[in-house]
Amino acid sequence: MSAALIVSGLRAGYGGKPVLHGVDLAVAQGSALTIVGPNGSGKSTLLKAIAGQIPVQAGTIAMGDTDLTRMSAQGRTRAGLVFVPQEGNVFRNMTVRENLRLGWDFHHRGAAGRLSVKLDAVLQLFPEIKPHMHTPAGLLSGGQRQMVAVASAMMLDPRVLVLDEPSAGLSPRNARLLFEIIDRIRQTGLTLLMIEQNVQLGLSVAEQGLVLVMGHVRHRAPASELAQDTSLAALFLGASGSHDAPATTVFE
Ligand SMILES: Nc1ncnc2c1ncn2[C@@H]1O[C@H](COP(=O)(O)OP(=O)(O)OP(=O)(O)O)[C@@H](O)[C@H]1O
Ligand SMILES: [Mg+2]
């Protein structure tokens, strides 16, 4: 497998206190890996360390042949690793068009001639936001805003797109709609690393799944296999488990 992203022995945390205790993962070129796990298990910490938002205490992060471990967050974005955090991922006072434009400006500096071509290409993936181009992002619904966040990331031509809980706070209908779009993006051959609290939805668009528990990789398996693993329900619903929980439970 040709890996687009390889994380080895990653330790990271806050104020010297480790949260991740040696995490290994690899995402194959053009494939998707979905991370699931209980609240507080270190999922967001893992993505923040990969994106360069918190320092790495030990281990390495590489994208293809590029070592990202000591690179700034901005350097990683320029190298093609684009992170969409769970919150604060759009500028609410700016219009949708201005949000999309920001990514372009950051990445292409001065090559404004091709902006309209890129905008058209991205809007083809996100037709739902097309009618709202001149609306301030803060006035959109949660689902629309999340689409703007992902669309803005796509303006940066990511080699690896990293999403933290894209469906958080969305109604089931909007979450499904967003995942249809994520699936559409997948078809373009993009490499994707994602956390998703809606286990079934998150695994449905991925080849591989990974379960993170207390900063350790507890389990990794093909996503379709993991989606059918009913023992995951016990893990998410507490030590006593819930034998009543159907395999389709949304673990929140
Ligand atoms: N900024 C921070 N400063 C100090 N500790 C933090 C900080 N952010 C998270 N933590 C701690 O790190 C641990 C892992 O948190 P993290 O946000 O990575 O979990 P998570 O798996 O993403 O959880 P959730 O499913 O609730 O989003 C928790 O114990 C949390 O309290
Ligand atoms: Mg989190």
TrEMBL record:
Stretches assigned to the ABC transporter domain: 5-239
Q: Its Gene Ontology molecular function terms?
A: ATP binding; ATP hydrolysis activity; branched-chain amino acid transmembrane transporter activity
Domain of life of the native organism? Bacteria
The biological process GO terms on file are: L-amino acid transport
Q: Note the SUPFAM superfamilies from the entry.
A: P-loop containing nucleoside triphosphate hydrolases
Keywords from the UniProt entry: Amino-acid transport, ATP-binding, Cell membrane, Membrane, Nucleotide-binding, Transport
Q: What Pfam families does the annotation carry?
A: ABC_tran
Matching InterPro entries: AAA+_ATPase (IPR003593), ABC_transporter-like_ATP-bd (IPR003439), ABC_transporter-like_CS (IPR017871), BCAA_Transport_ATP-bd_LivF (IPR052156), P-loop_NTPase (IPR027417)
Which PROSITE patterns does the record cross-reference, listed alphabetically? ABC_TRANSPORTER_1, ABC_TRANSPORTER_2
Indicate the segments annotated as coiled coil, or none if absent: none
Q: Per the UniProt record, which residue ranges are transmembrane?
A: none
Q: Which CDD domains match?
A: ABC_TM1139_LivF_branched
Keyword Transcription regulation present in the record's keywords: the answer is no
User: Its family?
Assistant: Belongs to the ABC transporter superfamily.
Q: What is this protein called?
A: ABC transporter ATP-binding protein
Instruction: State the organism named in the record.
Output: Advenella mimigardefordensis (strain DSM 17166 / LMG 22922 / DPN7)
